[in-house]
Design goal:
The complex is a heterodimer. Chain A has helices at 12-32, 41-69, 75-80, 91-94, 100-121, 127-155, 159-172, 184-189, 202-215, 238-252. Chain A is an all-alpha fold. The longest helix of chain A is centred in the first third of the chain and has 29 residues, at 41-69. Chain A is globular. The longest helix of chain B has 12 residues, at 32-43. Chain B starts with 7 loop residues before the first strand and ends in a 19-residue tail after the last helix. In chain B, strands 2-1-3 form a 3-stranded antiparallel beta sheet, covered by helices on one side. Chain B has a domain at 8-63: Ubiquitin-like (UB roll), CATH 3.10.20. By secondary structure, chain B is of the alpha+beta class. The chains are: A mainly alpha, B alpha+beta.
Chain lengths: 258, 95
C-alpha cells in the first residue's frame, strides 16, 4: 500500500458513495472517541455500539466504492489515504464531541435525517445501495430513539442539563441545513433513481426534531444562515485533527496490519 | 456507579421463541425506557436475544442466605422426587 494520498475518480456514483461513507466514518470515529470516557458504563457501550453501526455502514459503502471505481482499491485506501479536502462528509458530523449534550444532540439531528433517508433509499434502482439502506435504516432508527430519549431527558432535566442541551442545539443548528442540499454527485444521479433528492426529507426531519424538542421543553432555534461546504471538501478546523488521528498509523507504517 | 438518579435494574433475555426469559445480569439506568435501551446495548450485542425484560432490582424479594438450611436442605434427601425414577417415552421430548 502506498503511503501517499490517493486521488479518486470523479464519476458521480463513486463520489456519492464516498460522501455517504465519509459521513458514517467521521461520525463513527467521533463516537469512538467516547470509548472509555462515557458518563456511565452503560452509555459508554451505547455510544460504542452506535459508532460500530456507523463504521459498518462506512465499510459497506467504501467497499462498494472500490467496486464502482474498479481501480483495485480497498475500503482502507479511501479511509486512510485521502486528504481532508477529498473527504465529502457533512460539516455536522465532524463537529467535536463537546459535552454529552452536544454528542447526543448531534447524533439525534443526524439520525433523524438518516432514518427517513435510508428508508427512501431502500427503493433505489441500485441494488447494492438498496441493500445497504435496508440494513442501515434499522440501525439508524435505533440511533434516533436512543439519542432522542436522551435529548428529552437532558432538556427536561436539571437546570444544568437543560442549559447544555439548548446550547448544543443552538450551536449545531447552522450545520443541519447541509443535510438537505444535494451534492453535485447526487444531482447527477437523481434522475436515474439510484439516489433520492435529500431536500424532499426536510419536512419529515423537521417534524421529528420539533416533536422531540417540544418534549424536551427546549426551544427550536430560529431559521438562520446555514453552513455548507463539506460535500465540496471545504471543512472546518476540526476534521484535519480527526483524520490525523484516524490515518496516523497507516501513513507512518504503510500497509501495517493486525 | 449507583446514584439516587440511576437505580439498579435486573435484565432478563429470551434467546429464542418458546424458551423462558433468563436472568443475564444487571445495569444502572435512570428509568425503565433507558434501562431497556441499556439492556439492549449491553446484553444483546452478539445476537443473544429476541425479547428483553427489565425489572427494578428493588422490586425483587429474595430469600435470605441464612435460611438456606431450612429452605433447601430438606429437599436433598428426597431423591424420589426426581423424574429419573420414571421412564419417559421418547415421543414426549423435552420436558
Amino acid at each position: 500500500m502506498p503511503s501517499g494520498s490517493i486521488v479518486t475518480g470523479d464519476a458521480p456514483l463513486l463520489r456519492y458513495v464516498l460522501e455517504r461513507a465519509d459521513d458514517a466514518l467521521v461520525l463513527g470515529h467521533r463516537l469512538s472517541e467516547w470509548c472509555g470516557h462515557g458518563p456511565m458504563m452503560e452509555e459508554d457501550m451505547a455510544l460504542s455500539n452506535m459508532g460500530l453501526d456507523l463504521l459498518g455502514q462506512a465499510r459497506a459503502l467504501y467497499t462498494y466504492g472500490a467496486a464502482v471505481e474498479g481501480a483495485g482499491r480497498t475500503e482502507d485506501d479511501y479511509a486512510y489515504l485521502r486528504d481532508e479536502r477529498a473527504y465529502g462528509n457533512l460539516l455536522l458530523v465532524e463537529q467535536p464531541n463537546g459535552d454529552f449534550a452536544v454528542t447526543m444532540v448531534r447524533q439525534f439531528l443526524y439520525a433523524a435525517f438518516m432514518t427517513p433517508y435510508w428508508q427512501a433509499m431502500t427503493s433505489s434502482t441500485d441494488a447494492t445501495l438498496a441493500a445497504i439502506a435496508a440494513k442501515a435504516q434499522k440501525e439508524s432508527a435505533y440511533h434516533v430513539r436512543h439519542a432522542g430519549e436522551w435529548v428529552m431527558r437532558l432538556g427536561d432535566g436539571t437546570d444544568e442539563s437543560r442549559a447544555r442541551a439548548q446550547q448544543a442545539l443552538d450551536a449545531l443548528w447552522p450545520f443541519t441545513g447541509e443535510c438537505f442540499m444535494p451534492s453535485t454527485a447526487e444531482q447527477a444521479l437523481v434522475a436515474s433513481g439510484a439516489v433520492i433528492d435529500p431536500a424532499m426529507l426536510a419536512a419529515a426531519w423537521r417534524e421529528t426534531v420539533a416533536r422531540v424538542v417540544a418534549d424536551a421543553t427546549l426551544t427550536l432555534p430560529a431559521d438562520t444562515w446555514m453552513q455548507r461546504g463539506g460535500r465540496e471538501g471545504r471543512h472546518g478546523e476540526h476534521l484535519g485533527h480527526l483524520l490525523a488521528e484516524l490515518q496516523h498509523l497507516q501513513r507512518s507504517h504503510p500497509g501495517a496490519t493486525w | 456507579m449507583t446514584t439516587p438518579t440511576t437505580p439498579l435494574w435486573e435484565v432478563f433475555i429470551r434467546s429464542r421463541n418458546g424458551l423462558a426469559h433468563k436472568h443475564v445480569g444487571s445495569l444502572h439506568a435512570a428509568d425503565a425506557t433507558l434501562a431497556l435501551q441499556a439492556a439492549r446495548d449491553l446484553y444483546t450485542r452478539r445476537g443473544e436475544g429476541t425479547s428483553i425484560w427489565v425489572v427494578p432490582s428493588q422490586a425483587i424479594t429474595a430469600s435470605d442466605p441464612d435460611d438456606k438450611g431450612m429452605l433447601f436442605e430438606p429437599a436433598e434427601s428426597k431423591v424420589y422426587r426426581h423424574p429419573t425414577f420414571y421412564d419417559v417415552p421418547d415421543d414426549v421430548g423435552h420436558m
